[in-house]
Fold this protein.
Amino acid sequence: MNTRTVSVPAPDGTPLATDVCLPDGNRPRPAVLIRTPYGREAHRAELRGWAAHGFAALAQDVRGRHGSPGEWHPYQDQEKADGAATVAWARAQAWSSGEVVAVGASYAAYCALVTALDTAPGTVVQGDGIPDAVIAAVPALGLTETAREPGGPERL
C-alpha cells in the first residue's frame, strides 16, 4: 500500500489537495472518496483500511481548507462542482475500475450527498461526475474511537 498527495483540478483550475492510497497490485480498483474540511491527513488510517479491502482510497481537503487553496464557503455550489470534478478525475486514472463511492460523516457527509446530486451546469459531462454509491453518516458520537471500526472505516 502506498499513499501519495496529488492535486486534483477543480473546474476553475483550483488545485485540491488529495491523498490517494492504493492497494498493492496493478489491477483496476473501485474508489472510495472522502471530501472534508477537517483535514485529509486525519483520514490516513481510514484510507489504509479501505485499501486493505481492495479499494483505491482518496481523502481530499475541500476548497479553502488545509492543503487546498481558495475560499471556503460552506454549503455552497462549489462542493457540488468540485466533488463532480474529483469523481471524474478518479474515473480517468489508470488504477480506476470506473466505480466511485462517495463517503463521509458530518460535513463530509454533505459533500458525499451533494456530489451524488445533479452536477453543476458546464462542469463535467453528465454521469462522469456522479458517484455510483454514497455512504454518508451524521453520527451523534463524540469520540472517534466509538465512531470507527478498528481498521479505520466509519461505523455505520
